[in-house]
Amino acid sequence: MADKSSRGLADVVAATTSISDIDGEEGRLFYRGYDINDITGRISFEECVHLLQRGDLPTADELGAFANELTGARWIGETTEALLPHVVRSGTPMEALRTLVSSLAVDDPDAADSSVEADRRKATRLVAQMPVLVARYHADRSGREVAEGDPSLGIAGNFLLQVTGERPADRAAEIFDACLVLHADHTMNASTFTARVVAATLSDIHSAITGAMGALRGPLHGGANEAVMKTLSSIEGGVDTVDRFVRDELSAGRKLMGFGHRVYKAEDPRATHLRRMSEELAELTGNRHYFDFSRRMEKAVFDTKGLYPNVDFYAASVYHALGIPTDLFTPVFAISRMSGWTAHVIEQHEDNRLIRPASEYTGPVGRRWKDISER
Ligand SMILES: CC(=O)SCCNC(=O)CCNC(=O)[C@H](O)C(C)(C)COP(=O)(O)OP(=O)(O)OC[C@H]1O[C@@H](n2cnc3c(N)ncnc32)[C@H](O)[C@@H]1OP(=O)(O)O
Ligand SMILES: O=C([O-])CC(=O)C(=O)O
C-alpha cells in the first residue's frame, strides 16, 4: 500500500482506459488515439460518440445506421414526462436534470438487462435522450411547447432548434457540433471517475450517470462555464476595467472560474479551438463584447497568475453567442460528456474490479468509552 496520501488524488493512476489520453505538459488531448486537433471540425458529434462508445470512427454505412439509432431514441418516456412538471418548479437545471436522468431508467426497454450488450444500447439511448430532456425542461419551465424536432438535423442542430425555437444557421450548428466533440471525454475527470466508481460496484448505467451529473454540476468542474458567463456579465464598465477586476478578485484570494487545470501545464487544447469559435461568432453576430472581455481577462489572469484558460472559459462566450441561456451551459456540457461517461461505464463493466482506495487516518487514537453521564 502507498504510504502517503495524495490530496485530491493528484497524479494517482486510478484506472486504465483506452478511451482518451492527455499530455498535460504539451497540452494535447487524444480520443482513442486521434489528436483532438486532427478531428475537431472534421467529425460530427455522432461520429465522435461512435468512436468513444464503440472504439472506432464509423464507416459511412455504420454512421447511417448509428445516426438512425440515435434519431430513433429522441424520446424521454412516460415516467420522465410525468415527472417533468414537478421538477421544473424547483432548484437549478442541473438539479432537475439529475433527477430526470435517473428517471429515464424506468421506461428504458433494457431496464432489467445488466449485460454489456444492454449497456451499449442504453448508452446510445442516453446520448440521444439528454438533449431532448434539456430542451423539454427548458420549454416546460418557460411555459411553452418545445419546438418540434427535425430528424434531418443531427444532435447539435436539433438541440439548437429545440432550445431557441429557431432553425440554426448552418455555421452555428457546425460550431456547436464541434463544441460537443470537444467536451466529449477527458480521462479521469471528477464526473467520469464518479461514474466509474458507481459502475464498479456493478450498479447500473443510469445510477452511474446520475452520480456523474451531480459531480459535473459543481463550479470547480462543469459548473464553471456558467460561472464564467456570470463573471463576464458582472463586470461594469468598458473592457479597460477588466484588468482591475481581475487584480481585485485575485488579490482578495478569490478564484476566477474558467482558469487553471489539474492536468494541463500548457494551454488546454480545447480552449484554443473555443477561442477561435468565440471570435468567429463575434464576427458573425457583429457583437464582440464578450469575446473582447474574455481576451482581456485571459491576458490579465495569465500576466498576474500564470494561469491558462480551461475548456469552460471560451465555452461561455460561444454558448452565449449561440443563444443558449446561461443556466443551460452546464446541461450542455452534460449532453456532450454523456458520450464519454457512458463509454467509461461500458469499459468499467467489461473488465470490472471494485474501486475502493485506501485512506490515511488523521484522527485521535486510543480513546476509551465513557458512560454518557461522564462525557
Ligand atoms: C471541465 C473542467 O472541469 S475544467 C476546470 C473547471 N473549473 C474551474 O475553472 C474552476 C477554477 N479552477 C480551479 O479551481 C482549479 O484550477 C481546478 C479545480 C480546475 C484545479 O484544481 P487543483 O489542481 O486542485 O489546483 P488548486 O485549486 O490547488 O490550485 C493551485 C494553485 O493555483 C491557484 N488557482 C488555481 N486555479 C485558479 C483560478 N481559477 N483562479 C485563481 N487561482 C487559481 C490556487 O489558488 C492555488 O494557489 P496557491 O498554491 O497559491 O494556493
Ligand atoms: O479533466 C478534468 O479534470 C476536468 C476537465 O477538463 C474535463 O472534465 O473536461
UniProtKB/TrEMBL annotation:
Which pathway is recorded for this entry? Carbohydrate metabolism; tricarboxylic acid cycle
The reaction(s) catalysed by this protein are:
oxaloacetate + acetyl-CoA + H2O = citrate + CoA + H(+)
Q: Which InterPro entries match?
A: 2-MeCitrate/Citrate_synth_II, Citrate_synth-like_lrg_a-sub, Citrate_synth-like_sm_a-sub, Citrate_synthase, Citrate_synthase_AS, Citrate_synthase_bac-typ, Citrate_synthase_sf
Q: Which UniProt keywords apply?
A: Transferase, Tricarboxylic acid cycle
- Give the UniProt record's GO annotations in the biological process aspect: carbohydrate metabolic process; tricarboxylic acid cycle
* Active site positions: 261, 312
Q: Which NCBIfam families match?
A: cit_synth_II
Q: Name one GO molecular function term.
A: citrate synthase activity
Q: In the record, what lineage is assigned to the organism producing the protein?
A: Bacteria, Bacillati, Actinomycetota, Actinomycetes, Jiangellales
- Bilayer-crossing regions: none
PANTHER family, per the entry: CITRATE SYNTHASE, CITRATE SYNTHASE, PEROXISOMAL
GO CC aspect terms:
cytosol
Q: Specify the domain of life of the species encoding this protein.
A: Bacteria
Q: Which Pfam families did the record assign?
A: Citrate_synt (PF00285)
**Protein name, UniProt field:** Citrate synthase
Name the protein family. Belongs to the citrate synthase family.
